Each structure stands twice: as C-alpha cells, then as structure tokens.
Amino acid sequence: MKEHRTFPYVQYDVFTSRRLEGNQLAVFTDARGLSDAEMQALARETNLSETTFVIPRDSQTELDRGVRVRIFTTGEELPFAGHPTLGTAMFLRERDGKDRIELDLNVGKIPVTFSSDPSGSVTGEMRQRDPEFGSVHSREEVARAVGVNVEEIAADLPIQTTSTGMAFAIVPFRSLSTLAQLRTNWERCSDYLARTDAKFFYFVSRETVSPEAQLHARMIFYNGEDPATGSAAGCCAAWAVRHGVVASDQRALIEQGLEIKRASRIYFRATRAGDGVVNVRVSGNAVKVMAGEVLLEP
C-alpha cells in the first residue's frame, strides 16, 4: 500500500498582534505536487477566507521573480489579496530571516518589507500596484442592492470602483450605527456587482469605534464576512486620498471585523500625484497560531 502524500501547513492570524483575532490564513509551505483542483479542494477544506500555496523554485528564479505564491478562496483562485500576501510574507520572513520579501503572485511581483519596534513587535508593509479608478456608482442603485435607505449612504463622497489588483466599489456610509447593523443579502449584491466593473463592495464609515481609527469597514462576500481585507484597504487608501478623507502620505488606520468578533487593524498610506494616487502601502501584524500537515491520497 502506497503512503499518503504529506503537505505541511501553518496558520496565521493576520492584521492583528493578538492570537485568535484578525483574519485567519492557512499557508501550505511547499505546494509542489499539488494540482490546481487539489489546491482548490484544500482551500474548501480549510474553509477560511483565503488559503495560500507556496511553490518553491530555484534561488536565482526567486531572486529575479520572487517567491511563487497562489491564493485561493473556498470558491476560486484570486490574482491578489492583501491578508494572504502579508501572512505568507510573514511566514517567509520567519523561515528565511529576511526583512524584505517579494511574492510572485498572479497579479505580478508584490514586495513586503518588515520592521520591528522596541518591544519586538514586527510589522509588514506591502506596496500594492498603483490604483485604477473606475465607475462612479448611483447611490440609489447601490442602496437598493445593499438593502438600505439611500439616506444612509453618504452624499458628500462618491461610491467609486477602485483597484490595486482586485476591484472594489468603496461605499461610504453616513453613520457607524447603520454600518454596524447592516444585514445585506450577498445574492442581491452579487447580481448588482455582475453588471459593474467591481467584484466586491467595501463598506466604510468615517465614524469609528476606536478614536485612533480613521475608518470603520466591513466586507461581506460569498463566504460570509471578511475580518480584514488588505486588498480592499489598498483600494480604500487610494479612494480616501483622492477624495480628501485622509491626507497624502498620512498613515491611517482601518478597523474591521468587530461585528464578527475578529478585531483587525489595517494601516494604510498613499501619495497624491496630480489627479491620481501612487505608492499605495498597506501594513499590519500577523501571528502564527498553529501548524500541522495534510494527508492526501497517493
């Protein structure tokens, strides 16, 4: 009888320095030998927002192109996502002892740099692609899709599709209480989004729970609610700088995940350049919570 194929993995909580908070991520540390279908099945098995697969290559290729990493949700492969990028880079930093990690994702090379404070807490900052600004959405149509009164969506900021590798429609809510109580229907949202240039909504409010935060956020999608969305935070950074919510190069904080008891802290900054925005950076912490191995059929 042939032995099982064995694949090690580690699990991190991302965008938090406290275990059992933030956004969970499973990292398969050596995915060589896994087919696309097996990666997708393993992502369904972990049942987390995302699961990543590190595919080691020779040292020169990794030096030139970065460490090859693929990202899967329970339902599909993604070209880019923020908390999987940060969490996987944290694993690679701990493995290799480097303070700059470059990941070769489907969207291209994404660098992550790490720094430590006097207490020893390690923060990783990813530089995302320069943003592309898309459609401005109708408040009335979005309100119907989300299931709220149009007055609950702020009138002084646009609902605009923004992408740094994944397209989000940033939806500004007028009040924290309305956003915190939001109970939207994903199928209705999905029907609307399918007719637009956005893949997901990212709901934000300038009212926050923590006085340190500039924005409170929620992201609801086909796998439930995301505790922290680093790709959306990059899009939100570009949107916020472009429309004056935060200043150019201001280090700002998004709080997310509070409604599902997975508190997350996502820092961002971006640079205004004429009518555009460049140098989008998203940062945070990540902590390892478990390690194990998966056994597959020979």
Task: Please specify the SSE layout and strand pairing.
Elements: E1 5-14, E2 23-28, H1 36-46, E3 50-55, H2 59-65, E4 67-72, E5 77-78, H3 82-96, E6 100-105, E7 108-116, E8 122-127, E9 132-137, H4 139-146, E10 159-163, E11 167-173, H5 176-180, H6 186-193, E12 200-205, E13 215-221, E14 224-226, H7 230-242, E15 252-256, E16 264-273, E17 276-284, E18 286-296
Parallel strand pairs: 2-3, 4-6, 11-12, 13-15
Antiparallel strand pairs: 1-2, 1-18, 3-4, 4-5, 6-7, 7-8, 8-17, 9-10, 10-11, 12-13, 13-14, 15-16, 16-17
Helix pairs in contact: 3-7, 4-6
**Radius of gyration, taken over Cα atoms and rounded to an integer in Å:** 19 Å
N-to-C SSE string, H for helix and E for strand: EEHEHEEHEEEEHEEHHEEEHEEEE
The total of helices stands at 7
Number of strands: 18
Oligomer: single chain
Q: Terminal Cα separation, in Å?
A: 9 Å
Helix content: 10-25%
Mean pLDDT: 97
So what's the overall shape? Answer: globular
Roughly what fraction of the amino acids lie in strands? 35-45%
Structural class: alpha+beta
